[in-house]
Every structure is written in structure tokens, then in C-alpha cells.
Amino acid sequence: MDDDSLLLRSVQDPGAFATLVGRHQAAVHGYLVRRAPPAAPDLLGEVWVRAFAARSTFDPARGWLFGVARHVLLAHWRAVRPAPAPFPTELAAPDEWPAVDERLTAAAAAPRLRAALAALAPVERELLLLVTWEQLTPQEAATAVGIPRGTARSRLHRARLAMRDHLTDVTTHDDRTGERA
């Protein structure tokens, strides 16, 4: 049974909601871990509680689940700090030896990526992260953020250009001479 049918069925048969949880638990957890690592397990529970409580009001044709997760995350950020950071600010502990080289490369690039992400407008940053990290379509990301699809596509395009320009500017700059390469 597809997600839309399960969501509609869960209004009459609450047990059907458990199948939705099983299908999407890992994806929603990943979304939360990448944005609020220490709080992710608690936030995940809150997402499911809110989604279950409001399941009769959701339009199953729309990407409702990441919208619920986003609202839970925003409420968490408002509660814990005044200026939310939509991406982790600390690197995770390094992996064992087989992944050390990959982690070192990623660690070297992380400050540039963080700076480029921080330079984006909040909605553009969220759209970009939903599409790249969560593998949502631009239409699904638009629904999760609560903006029209056309607006989301143009903002996503703008975010991608800004990231490319920022990262190109940083990577073509010669640190030894202070000049562009």
C-alpha cells in the first residue's frame, strides 16, 4: 500500500500509521541528526507524535512529513538558542583508519562549506539542504518550507549559484600570494 493510502487509512485504523513510521523513520531521523545531532532522538519522537495527532488534516499528495519535521526542528532551535544554525557547527569524531583520509579532506573543506551555507538566505539554505541532504524533489522541498513551487525552484537555483560562486572564489584564491589563481 502506498504512503497516501496508508495516511488516509490511518485516520480510521491508527495501526496503519506504524507502517508509515517504519518506512520513513530512517529518513526523518537522518534529517534531524544532520541539523540537531544531540536532540535528534527526542525530536524524532515529537515528529511522530505531531504527525499522528494531525494525520486527518494532512493532504497526502503533499510532502507533509518533512514539513512536520521542519516545524519540530524550528521549535527546538527557538527553545535552545536565539539564532538557529541549520547545519551542524562541529565535526563528528573521526572514523577508524579506512575513512581517515576522507574525513581529513572533508574537515578541510567544512569551514568553506559552512561559510558558503551561512551566506545564503535562510529559506534558500533550507531548500538546498532538503534537496541535497534529504533527497527531496524541489516540489517536495517547497511544500516542506511552505512556499510556492516556482518560487522554490528559483530560490534553489539562486542558492546553487551562490554556493558555486562562493566556493569558486575561495578555491581560486592563492593563499600564499593573496592573489586569485
Automatic annotation (TrEMBL):
Among InterPro entries, the record links this protein to: RNA_pol_sigma-70-like (IPR039425), RNA_pol_sigma-70_dom (IPR014284), RNA_pol_sigma70_r2 (IPR007627), RNA_pol_sigma70_r4_t2 (IPR013249), RNA_pol_sigma_r2 (IPR013325), RNA_pol_sigma_r3/r4-like (IPR013324), WH-like_DNA-bd_sf (IPR036388)
Q: Which UniProt keywords apply?
A: DNA-binding, DNA-directed RNA polymerase, Sigma factor, Transcription, Transcription regulation
| Top-rank taxon | Bacteria
KW DNA-binding (keyword) present: yes
Q: Which GO terms describe its cellular component?
A: DNA-directed RNA polymerase complex
Q: Name one GO molecular function term.
A: sigma factor activity
Q: Where is the RNA polymerase sigma factor 70 region 4 type domain?
A: 112-163
- What are the GO BP annotations of this UniProt entry? DNA-templated transcription initiation
Respond yes or no to whether keyword Transcription is given for this record: yes
Q: Where is the RNA polymerase sigma-70 region domain?
A: 20-79
> Which Pfam families does the protein's record reference?
Sigma70_r2, Sigma70_r4_2
Report the Gene3D superfamilies cross-referenced here.
1.10.1740.10, Winged helix-like DNA-binding domain superfamily/Winged helix DNA-binding domain
Spell out the family assignment given in the record's similarity comment.
Belongs to the sigma-70 factor family. ECF subfamily.
Which protein, by its recorded name, is this? DNA-directed RNA polymerase sigma-70 factor
Lineage per the UniProt record: Bacteria, Bacillati, Actinomycetota, Actinomycetes, Pseudonocardiales
